[in-house]
Amino acid sequence: MAVDIAPAPPAPAKQAAAPPRRSREALTAWLFILPSLIGFLIFTAGPVVAAGVISLLDWNLFSAPTWAGLRNFARLGPDPTFWSALGNTAYFTLLSVPLTIVVSLLLALLLNQGLRRIAVFRSLLLLPYATITVAVAFVWIWLYIPHDGLVNAVLGWFGISGPAWLISDSWAMPALILMSVWKSFGFGMVVFLAGLQAIPQQLYEAGRVDGTSPWNSFRHITLPMLSPALFFVVVTSVIGSFQVFDQALIMTNGGPGTRTTTLVMYIYRTGFENYDQGYAAAQSLVLFAFIVLITAGQFLFQRRLVHYDN
Amino acid sequence: MSKLSRRGFLQLSGLAGIGVAAAGCSSGPPSGTATWSMWSSSAAEKKVWQDFGTYVEKQLGVRSVATLTPSSGYPTKLDLQLVSGTASLVTALNGTLIPTYAARGAHRPLDDLIAADPDFELDDFYDTSRRISSFNGKTYAIGFDVAPTVMYYNKDLLTKQGIPLPSRTEPMSWATFRELARQLTRPGEQYGFTCAPAIDDLVSWIYCAGGNVMSEDGGRSILGEPEAMQALQFVIDLFVKDKVTPPIKNLVTESSLSNFLQGNVAFMQNGPWQVVNARKAKFDWDIIPFPAGANGSTPRVSGSSFAIPSGVREGAELDLAWKLLKTLTSTGALDIYAKAGRNNPARLSAGSAFQPPPDNLGIVQDILAGKVAGGHAFDVTTNWNQVKQLLGQDLPRTFLGQVSVAEAIKGLTPRLDVLMRQHLDTIRQATARKG
């Protein structure tokens, strides 16, 4: 029996020429991303590549550059100021990041308790983060004045004789860290607050039914559910801390001695005050490598420590 | 109201982007404009430079465009403008940076322009200004101000204490000065002396003791030699041992002027460039020559100048740049500068415009002319920023009593010597380029 097979109807010409819907969406997405992508290539990737090239040159900005090979990197080893600046930056990071996170988390937990006029508190606590560092630094210089400053006056109420904070070998860096924690806790607080408000209440209700204590509820529900936000804040804070510059420049100018000279401050001085662009580029690439390594390490750890819903 | 389609939105965004880019790429003032750069950190300074602009337009008959930048950011902005080829025809330079720029070829020597211009009188400028504006035997800039460091004193405070006012012309000895500072100090209330805890102020004492930061050829540090060490120890002792200075609260904001203006400090070391600010004092004050050490009263003499960037093209552009530089450093322009009380002008013929108060202002010009006491041009290297930074690390700690002068100098000297050798190498390269 012959079977008639009807020929398939030809597809409408218009439909065949038009790109599938998903391709059109992709194209639109790319168009929207394009300005940002161009900006990234020109203002981020471009300078990184340029720094790579400049690090191989001797260049004082005004005369023609000459080839230096890896000489600028070799200069890093015997340069005591570089290592001192790196040590100071690591010290700053190791103290300021955990402190900022603890303060941010505590305040976020407090604000998440359904306080009245919560928006007012939230805005007030976000003010330090929203204020420019220069202004904040000058206020803190005033607060840290050895005899008449507010910080030492408060310590005096408890019978403690405060140090000359910003000119003390031992206390200048802790003073910067304290100011930095105050300046930046607002960012972490907002992220943590958003994370806390996204935790399903059923989890806490189930915990209450099982008789979980508030501490266990925090340990076994809040912290795991907040871990993506925590991870985000840790990564961005560490990167930000390695780039600390403005508050140290304004409050201590790197002193006393080189006690508060940070790596970015040293890079700036090498490149723009000492006209040693090649060496500054080499230093900045080493800083970049440190940040990449530390961030990569954090991403390795997050597989074990960060809990995602899905 | 019509709805904007997605295509229309993208088109408009694209056009706006092109517009912004075009605006950003605009090439600045048209050719033939007299462009110049200057630092300016206050409304009073801005007013002086505006008057300069008006004077330039009147003299040259062309539009004057001044780029004014706060003094702290001026060097960085100038560097970027020089590198990107967008610098003005004439740029102001602090004297300490002239060798730095000259050695790197950022500014052009002016000797050919001076030689070809019979109207220009280089002899009308103080010798020290000419020395500050030169590098490696060539003139790289023309001065607009020059002045020695002097000692300001609070007349009311001395009179109240029953202490006779010091001589207006005869510098006192260091021993007398120290004794006076001690007598005038009442801890926590009143102090004998204030200066900035940095090399810029220490250097005057070092010169007066017969020492220097670097050897005569600039090839090694001589801060460890007895003359310099004696000077350093003397000043640090005023802070740490005698405690005749207001306590240092913060090295960044420490300001001798602000200490002096409080009215409870007898003597302040500073330059006549602070006369304009010291006039705000609510007490009677005056200036006297710097105390004399073993080498006499020979404090640092500082100055600032105008220079022409190397990127200025030969021909009409260079012609305009030279005319502009001459106008900005002419007697008429420097009269405006001095009359406003900014500082002592670099030209002898404009000197009379810098007028009292203070009563004894005339000694500034007498010192420069070698009639009273003396002065020592601020000797700097071609990498002075680096030298200053290195000195800025440990010297301030001596003022705080954290390290001894001997320890600080011992730690600094090897690193200073490296910088001095680099300085000699830079001069050698600059000389070879010239050849």
From TrEMBL, chain A:
GO terms for biological process: transmembrane transport. Residues 1-20 are annotated as: Disordered. Keywords: Cell membrane, Membrane, Sugar transport, Transmembrane, Transmembrane helix, Transport. Pfam families: BPD_transp_1. The chain crosses the membrane at residues 29-57, 90-111, 123-143, 180-200, 220-242, 280-301. Residues 86-298 form the ABC transmembrane type-1 domain. InterPro entries: ABC_transporter_permease, MetI-like, MetI-like_sf. One of its GO terms (cellular component) is plasma membrane. It is found in: Cell membrane. It is a multi-pass membrane protein. SUPFAM superfamilies: MetI-like (SSF161098). Belongs to the binding-protein-dependent transport system permease family. This is Multiple sugar transport system permease protein. It comes from Kribbella shirazensis.
UniProtKB/TrEMBL annotation, chain B:
It holds the Pfam family SBP_bac_1. PROSITE patterns: PROKAR_LIPOPROTEIN, SBP_BACTERIAL_1, TAT. Keywords: Signal, Sugar transport, Transport. InterPro entries: Bact_solute-bd_prot1 (IPR050490), SBP (IPR006059), SBP_1_CS (IPR006061), TAT_signal (IPR006311), TAT_signal_bac_arc (IPR019546). GO terms for biological process: transmembrane transport. Coiled coil: none annotated. Belongs to the bacterial solute-binding protein 1 family. This is Multiple sugar transport system substrate-binding protein.
